[in-house]
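Sat 14:20. Reprocessing the chain from the morning session after the first attempt stalled halfway. Input below, unchanged.
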Amino acid sequence: MPVPMSTIPSSTMPGVRLDLRNIAIVAHVDHGKTTLVDAMLRQTGAFRANQAVIDRVMDSGDLEREKGITILAKQTTVDFHGVRLNIVDTPGHADFGGEVERTLLMVDAILLLVDAAEGPLPQTRYVLQKAMARHLPVVVALNKIDRSDARPAEVLDAVYELFMDLGADAAQIEFPVVYTNARLGTATRDLAVPGADLGPLFDLLIQLTPPPTFTPGHPLQLLVTNLSANEYVGRMAVGRIWNGSIRLGQRLVVVRADEGSADGSVEPGRTTILNGTVTSLQTAHGIERIEIAEATAGDIVSVAGLPDVTIGDTLTDPADPRPLARLDVDAPTLRMTFGVNTSPLAGREGKYVTSRQIQARLDREILGNVSIEVHATDAGDTFEVRGRGELQLAVLIEQMRREGFELQASRPEVILRIVDSETREPYERITIDIPPQYIGEVQAAMAGRKGRLDQMSTDQDGRVRMEFIVPVRGLIGYRGQLLTESRGTALMHQIGEGYGPWAGEVTHRTSGVIVADRPGTSNAFGLFNLQERAELFIGAGEEVYEGMIVGENSRPGDMDVNATKEKKLTNIRTHAHDEALRLTPPRPLTLESAIEFISVDELVEVTPASIRLRKRLLTSHDRRRERSREEDLSRSAE
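Finished this time. Tokens:
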């Protein structure tokens, strides 16, 4: 629990909310968190008998349903035998770890879900480490026990090993275990006794989770851990009430400790106080949010009426303001540049295309996402965006393009640190699950990317699991290469491992690209001769411009080509001359694959309707001049 800046007299006996529990469900991606929440909601009567409910109801965003992952943490409530459980469903991907860190500040225990076949994976380690640092009780649920390859006894041993690796104390290592089948909605404490419903899980959660405690008579303390928006009441601050109570129409103050500004105009540590009135007070009821008149300590609520509130602020009583310690999340490790689209096709498909509109959208993003940072650059139409990983930044770009934005993005770069005059870079621990025949390809690729094999094991189904510690630079662009080399059979998971020494140069893309040398419309005749030397990204009849990347060269080095070349007309009319040209279907470009593919001198052009690749310098003359300049600089440095 966050510690208030003022002390409370030791003689004050704490109050207890026996009717409430606050719990977070955490797990690695695709281990069944959201499916388990669905079953909890169904069995506790959160849905009407005639209500049509989709699967994974908590994954409400379009991107979440398309990708099958949770991106934003979401709260719901269930009532079981007179006790209300506030349950927060958290993301399982490492790139969205900021959501998990904020969620852990609102809860008193966690339900750690582990796949009974796959066992603990990198995100399992990450969230467990964060929970143990806050000394939260842990309930371990081995899920998917109905899988044909389930091995609950071995997985439970692996979970014990994970707890010991993370330095668990005697109390933490004695965690309770429950076996669940989220798809069928059953739980049991003993594998020999099949479960009928989730009752054993609910009983265990209520028994182990400490009820919320508070100090009677203490003024209001609410730590803002998330923001939401409502079209009627505007911005809403989401957080847990640690002390006191809040009611509709109440006067509040927002207390914020400023971090200081780069120009020195704001001193670090200065406290800012903003006034406001509660115009709307909401809490979760099942999957819906309902208006309430008052909430007390332990409740998780959404508060409107404070237009300038941000994540990390404390809502408190104006008569006796007592701020809580501001939340802290892990720093970003990757950066990209977002800029105004400068291609010849700019402005045709997007609704928001100016730097002012892009900056306003990025400013809105950082208000509700503390793991994203936005910095200005020397160029007025370009912004540096920092985040936890490629997927997090790609999701942001995808959200922007669906909102009508048009922009261009660069290749991700790692954020370096200088410690004791030494350059240090971020590392990640990756787990690769592959059939045994691809071990050689993975080891060769990891060697070129400065990866170090940490451990290797073989599952019951014969698949090999390999763990590497790799510089983040070495992982940029590797996921696509891995899927290609393993014929789509590989699985890769990753988690941050902190900063380490500079590993030296790593290999990236070894092949070049083919670049259009003139504007026009691509033609089947021109592309037919190119497909033997390259894999195409476009088909016939698409508009191209000079500097646009139309394919991947089969050899190192770039090649300028004429993709608009047409067949010369002649008087010959024979079957051999006039037979139809058959083009190989082009490689489809997704946003993630495009970001992984590009090199330092290339950009991804993103519009609501298209994803294109281009050179940073469009004309071949400019590119040759830039190469000559770089060669001169390297010779002078020698």
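DSSP finds 16 helices and 37 strands in the chain.
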